[in-house]
Input
Amino acid sequence: MKENIKISGQLKAYLAWPVLLSLFFIFGNVAVAFMSGIAALVLLPFTLCYIAVAVWIYLYRRKRMLGGLVEFSAEYAWIQKQLLAEMALPYALADEDGRILWMNQSFQEVLEEVRGYKHNLLALFPEVTKTDLATDNETARVHTAYGSRKFRLDIRPIFVSGSEEEENEAIVGRQKMLAVYLFDETDILRYRQEITDEKMVAGLVYLDNYEEALESVEEVRRSLLTALIDRKINKYIGSMDGVVKKMEKDKYFFTIKQKYVEQIQEERFSILEDVKAVNIGNEMAVTLSIGMGMNGDSYSQNYEYARVAIDMALGRGGDQAVLKDGSRIQYYGGKSQQLEKATRVKARVKAHALRELMETKDRLLIMGHKMSDIDSFGAAIGIYRIATELNKKSHIIINEVTTSVQPMMDRFTENPEYPEDLFLTGPQAAELVDGNTMLVVVDVNRPSIADAPELLKMVKTIVVLDHHRQSSEVISNAVLSYVEPYASSACEMVAEVVQYIADGIKMKNAEADAMYAGIVIDTHNFTNQTGVRTFEAAAFLRRNGADVTRVRKLFRDDMVDYKAKAAAIASAEIYRDAFSIGICPSEGLQSPTIVGAQAANELLEIKGIKASVVLTEYHNAIYVSARSIDEVNVQVMMEQLGGGGHRTIAGAQLAGMSVDEAKGMVKGVIDQMLLKGDIS
Output
């Protein structure tokens, strides 16, 4: 409005100029009269004529001129309206509720409508929300589809003032309309998808148990077994126009186009089962691990992604595929149990590397996971014995002592042979950290559930020893990482390290008892995840003074705990005829999560149960304990709830919900896994 008034004033000034010049001529005529009367008389008729014309223009032609301007403006506005109506870009006006008030011809063509503008954006485009319509300052951008076309919908607010006085009012005081623009993205998105489909995906295939499988078949048939596996892998990759190259006898590299990744995911990497079906008399089925990398910045980065993915597949136990898509990681397979390695070469190598690191440091900090169990405690005690034999000062970090650990811990705190500062809390340990400090993390490889996560950022030299399968969250700054999912417990791994790290290490009775108890608890009395090396580790600990009876007495249940465990078992619901889901009471219990885990173990004794889950409410969170024997990978189940663990022993923590809501989530995960075929 102000701009219109300004233009009108300029027009009046232009029309007033002839009148102003008339005065100039009058003054000029008077000046000439002083010089010459005759000259003034000659000039006077011309002056009068100019004045008459100027007055006539100002009084008469002014109205005609303004009328012409108004006529031109009207024609110009009509042209603008026609251009807007016939504009190639679909354009419409809508009110605050999304009702379309007007649309141009291109918008009508998109909607395939000629008349009947009474449409609503919310009904036409489901992706549009009321929040998008409520925008006041910025343009709301929504990607949507209508019919067979895909569009980008821009919604821009327009404020209309009713009078000139409303110009200075706040935006909220004006009537709002919405300008709606449609940009057709169909072809652009198709071209982008075609470019994406042509990207290279790098992959690695490792045979998990190549040597063991060959040894289980006759020598004359070994070449045939290898040839059949090669044929399976080449045929599978070749069906997707991919290229596969055998790098070593049990390692392959392949590359495919990204458009085939969705097909592989839908089949859930069928090659995993196809190779296991190869049988020419071999007693042991061959299993694969697959790592794939995609959507990196370059081909070399895709290969690095594949390297990371294959390491994770092997770290999780093999017989599975891991797809690393940028920062996102997806897991497939992992149904079968990883076979125990007969050789101890890896344990010996890791033990020697650990000793070299220890010898360069003056102080050792040993840390397990939050709410430490006896396996974590026993493994820490084993590392403490190694450090002591190497004349290194060491401390074990425990922030919260559970009822399962307390009886064993009392044997050390009440024993004068051990220093008073053997056990420290996280803040106390943080005060001791310096450049000559080393941190050993046992029975955990996820930073978020470590007992003192802040130490992982403070200490530069970190060693990880764990038997849980790795997830996408790992301790990335570890100098030495020894993660073996086939091991029954962290105590089994540490027992082997003790034997190889130095000669003549003699453990005390309490230390041997703690490590032996860790193996007993994690294997559920040698019935779960137990191999030859498990019994060899137990035998080593027995020779060092571990007493079975003493350990058993230490871990007898209190009556309150026993009743709570019985209540959890009594509350169990059989879901889908194969899953038992129970709720453990926590009132009056010092460590209800331990009781919940014990109840989950007991529920596996029921005939026909493939997996058991027990929920325990504790510290404003729901603790989930999951157990299985061999048919269900509970680690994959718990990972979908944000947890993790081992193939047969896993858990998760759920915050901000009730026990019933958590139970519903567990059932939803089971249904989803059954639907995908992760559970047979």
